[in-house]
Amino acid sequence: MAPELKQFGDLVQTDFDRHPVWIGCHTADYEKPWYDETDEETFRPWNGPLPASPSEGMLLVRATIELADGSKFPGFVTPVLDQDDLGVQQPQISVGGRHFGFWGGMLGLPAEERQAFYASLGKPPRDVFPLRFAVAPNLAVGFANGEVAGFYRTDGDNVAVEL
User: Fold this and answer.
1) Contacts with 39 (C-beta within 8 Å, 6 or more apart), sequence order
2) Where are the domains positioned within the chain?
3) What is the pLDDT of residues 78-120, one digit of tens each?
4) Spatial contact of 28 and 57, defined as CB atoms under 8 Å apart
């Protein structure tokens, strides 16, 4: 019997309330009979011991996000073993029933998405950034805490921050 399977874009905060750690099926479940029903965006609840290790595969772990003004929101992050890398950790914050990320890769995040984020918070950038994210130590090992200065994009060599 297949476990609960969810696409990355379909995960909501109540999923993390029920299961604080999720693992990517394509990095952990090669030999499972239901593997062919999954893709690189498919996750399932972690069923191993806690704290979970990134060495097991791609994890999404419940986190607390604290804005510059001290307000706190739920979210999630991908812990990493060997370096504090925001491009891999990709913290997500849950606001108004929606997740918002801060890593936009080569294209960056569209201005409309950034404005939707501020509108859902009802706060200006100065009250939001820098924000901090943290995972409870009993949930995962590795680098799972950090700071976000704004919305990130890269040209491959350099990283720029936009508000």
Assistant:
1) 26
2) 6-103+131-149
3) 999 887 788 889 999 999 989 999 999 899 999 999 999 999 9
4) yes
